[in-house]
Amino acid sequence: MKIYRLLTEDDTSKFCHKVTEALSKGWELYGDPTYAFDASNGVMRCGQAVTKEVDAEYSPDMKLGAQ
Fold this sequence. Notes:
The chain is of the alpha+beta class. 18% of the residues lie in helices and 46% in strands.
């Protein structure tokens, strides 16, 4: 089964580290990254979708980041 996550973070190196960590755990980039202004916090935010094939049955209770 393929699972999906959307990684988001303020536009800092923390975002790059979050994506790099996911890639090191077998997640694959899905689509282009996104970049938008978060007016409520006054900062730019980044997003990147990632997917991963896992040997598990889907449940809404699964912790996607732990896969």
